[in-house]
Amino acid sequence: FFNGLLLLPNFDKLFDKGYINFDASGKIVISKFLNENDKHILNLNSQIRLRNLEKSHIDYLEYHREFCFIS
Known about the structure:
The chain has three helices and two strands. By secondary structure, it is mostly helical. Strands 1-2 form a two-stranded antiparallel ribbon. A hairpin with a 5-residue loop joins strand 1 (20-22) and strand 2 (28-30).
């Protein structure tokens, strides 16, 4: 039940491709491979947070950060 996130389509694609992730508090983590213009076009900023993040999501996010996220 906790290995999925309900994201906007553009964020979902970025997450699946490893360009964004979320920390344990739900705050977005953005890959350094997205430049400022990319972030502007994609409407990404450091203030984005997940709502309704459950403790059970954290293990999945950690896995994604370690094995999928392009840091």
